[in-house]
Structure formats: structure tokens, C-alpha cells
Amino acid sequence: MLHLDMDAFYASVEQRDAPELKGRPVIVGGSPERRGVVCAASYEARQFGIRSAMPSRTAARLCPSGVFLPPRMDQYRAESVEIFRLVAATGVRVEQVSVDEAYLEATHVVPPIGGDPDERLEAAMPLARELKAAIRSLRGLTASIGIASNKLLAKLASDFRKPDGLMLITDRECSAFLRPLACRALHGVGAVTADVLARSGLNTIGDLQDHPGDLRALLGSFGPVLKRYALGQDDRPLELGDEIKTISSETTFERDTADRPTLRAVLREQAGEIAAKLQRRRLAARTVQVKVRYGDFTTLTRQFSVEEPLADPAEIYRIACWLLGRDQLVRRPLRLLGVGVSGVNETGPSQLVLSLGSIR
């Protein structure tokens, strides 16, 4: 299993297309003079402490030399198509997670070498090197690739040496590799779960490996799953279907309303409900959608996709507000207001700066 992850994808595309931006802290999004949320930044910007979901004004204070650019989603999607054409040319089976990330199952394209599973993993290194080189030479971008026997380890490997990384985690080495890492590194462990573990003295994956039992008393049905993850075991297959998973919340008002405090309160409640569902299932989403229905039953929807997944209620709320304000959807009283998320997948921080306005 290989995990391919483009490096700071949106910002890297901007730096490639405007060479004068190379080496500069680039933040994709709106002007810091307007309300916004950080969702994507170059590695140079991240050195200033720029992080996902940070208000753009805060980002500007932390990094006065930051270059703020508006997102070009059509360009990023077009670039993604070209990158995944290169991926497809290798013959691997692909589970594309987002515009810039995928799991690649390469068992059938790697030449068989003996019966040692670790030797089979090592045999995938040339394929990964060739793919990275093709992306660099033909698209002018860098990717990080992790190789391991399963999804969990492959993703950890790709994250470990970013940017432009290539790392192999063998089955023989995986337990020792995992031991010093924080529990948060494991798939499905968010802030709440990490806090539950920390209160029981479980701070590192090594602590989980050494813990007697299956952790069910702490985490319910997720306990045995997390124990397997801590040991480097993960049997999740590629998900090759294209069914779109969504979570949404809608409110129909007794009387049509355009009252801003009322609408904001409803949006916050809906964002909190959606975030709670995501977090319970240890998921995050890449697209936020708003839905409005007027008194004459005319219904409109607007959506925006971010580079990396989000699950925080404040982030969902801010993007929903921005979508409503961007297209002036509250130009007359609403009969219904709804928020939804799609592109649901693994938990992770969001990247990209939006110019988010309040409901006006």
C-alpha cells in the first residue's frame, strides 16, 4: 500500500505558476482585511505558526510578509486530473481521497521477490521514486509517498518526511516506529479521544501497546480497533466506489425570517450537530454546503471545498456564513436554512484561506 500526498498543494500550485513566489510565505485565500479562515498555506508560511482554521487577520499578524492569494479551485482540480493521470499510468489501483491525496494498492504491479513481506514492500520503492520524479518533471510539483503493508502505516509514512518525502515502514520495524509517536497520530484519534487517553496516562502509542486489555473500558467499541492500530494492524481495504457520503442538518422556520441573530444561532447549532456526528464517527469533510428555501419554495444551494478535511464546528459555521454572504442568499426571508458536509473521509486539519463575511 502506498499513500500519495501532494505537498501544500494549493499553495505549491500558486508558487509554481508564479515563480517569484517561490520561497515566500503564501496563504491562499482572501484579504486579511476581511474576516477569514486559514485553510492552506505554503511551508514557508507554516514556519510562522500559520495553521488551519486560523482567522486570516491573525495569520497576517503572525506573518506580516505573507502573500495572500484568492483560491483558484478550477485550476487545482485541473491540476489534480493531470497528476492522477500519471498515477493511473503506473497501473496501480487507486482510492482517491481528495484532489491531492490517494491510497495506491500496488501488489499486482510490484515484481514478486521471495516470500518475505518486507522484501515485497521494498520492491515498491522504485515505483514510488518514478512516480515522484514524473510529478516533479511533468507537473513541477512535489509529492510525499509512504509505503507500508496497510493504509494506517502508509499514511503515517507519507506524513513523516514531508515535504518531498519518501518513506518505507516495514512490518518488522512498525512497532518500534510507532512507540514514541503521540496517540493523536493514529487514525480516528481526535482531541476528545486523546484527552480521554491522557487522563488514563496513555500519551504515546507505546503506552497503548503496553496497556493490558483492549481499551474497551475507556473507548467502547473503538477500544479494540485502536489497540490494533497501535500495533500497526489495519485491515481497511481500498474504497473504490464513488458514493458520496454526506451529513446535513436543516431547520424549517415557523415563520419566514431574515433576522440575522436568529439565522446565526441556527447555523451554529447545525454546525455543532454536524461536527458532533463527524467526531463520533472519527471522520472529517472537505466540502461545506448551505441550503436556503424562500417563502415561494425556491431553493438554492452553494458549496465550497477545502484542501484538507475539517470537523470543527467553528470552521463549518464560518464557511457556511461566508457562503451565505458571498452570494447574498439572505436577500429575503427564509423558510428553511440548512448546512451539510460531503467528501467525508479521514480526520484531519483543513487548509486554505477563505474570505469569510458575516451574514449581511
Quick structural summary:
The chain is an alpha+beta fold and 360 residues long. Helices cover 38% and strands 22% of the residues.
Percent helix, as a range, is 25-40%
- What are the secondary-structure elements, in order, as H or E? EHEEHHEHEEHHEHEHHHHHEHEEHEEE
Task: Write down how many β-strands occur, each being a DSSP E stretch of 2 or more residues.
Answer: 14
The third-level CATH topology of the domain at 246-355 is Dna Ligase, domain 1
Largest sheet: 5 strands, mixed
Strand ordering within the main sheet: 5-6-1-7-8
Mean pLDDT, to the nearest integer, reads 88
Description:
- With 360 residues, this protein is an alpha+beta fold.
- Helix 4 packs across helix 6 (125-139) and helix 13 packs across helix 14.
- Strand 5 and strand 6 (101-105) form a beta hairpin.
- The radius of gyration is 22 Å and the shape is globular.
- Among the domains are: 176-230, 5' to 3' exonuclease, C-terminal subdomain (DNA polymerase, domain 1), CATH 1.10.150.20; 246-355, 2-Layer Sandwich (Dna Ligase, domain 1), CATH 3.30.1490.
- It has helices at 9-17, 43-46, 56-62, 73-88, 117-122, 125-139, 151-160, 174-178, 191-199, 205-210, 216-219, 222-230, 260-280, 313-326, and strands at residues 2-6, 26-28, 36-37, 67-69, 93-98, 101-105, 143-147, 166-168, 246-257, 283-294, 299-310, 334-342, 345-346, 354-355.
- It is 38% helix and 22% strand.
